[in-house]
Amino acid sequence: MTHYAIGDIQGCFDELIQLLDTLNFSPEDTLWVAGDLVNRGPKSLETLRFLKELGSQTRIVLGNHDLHLLAIHYGTTTQRRSDTFDEILNAPDREDLMDWLRHQPLLVHDEALGYTMVHAGIPPNWSLKKARSCAKEVEQVLQSTLAIEYFRNMYGNKPDRWKNQSRAGNGCG
Length: 173
Ligand SMILES: [Mn+2]
Description:
The protein is of the alpha/beta class and 173 residues long. The protein has helices at residues 13-22, 44-54, 64-73, 86-89, 94-102, 128-142, 147-152; strands at residues 3-6, 30-33, 58-60, 107-110, 115-118.
């Protein structure tokens, strides 16, 4: 049983399949996907369907492009010229895929393996415990009815650090 990690697939489905073939990826193996599953590449829809189908064989975290897609799905922003989401937005399984996507975590930690995965890093002054706690806080919002509110406020550079006003009161700050 082997753990493979790959980041930024960005809709490059054919290349992903090629890579898994080269690795002889088998049902006992696990694929860690470090975010940015979609956008820019030509086959974001196939990529999402494939990873969703792989189920418990994958460990996935969300990246900024995945969150951007969710924001478009919820109607809180529109596609940019470089975005390649049309296929997903017109797909009959759009709702299923978006619901699955927003239930993916921001951080995966495997105690036994001693591995932690996020997209684009953790502030150097955060402990793993704090990163896990803050990730959990955002995940809970994404998976709740407050998700649309989160996406409405996701864009822009402010605030530029975590504010210690969490609902959970878990000291993220
Ligand atoms: Mn990214």
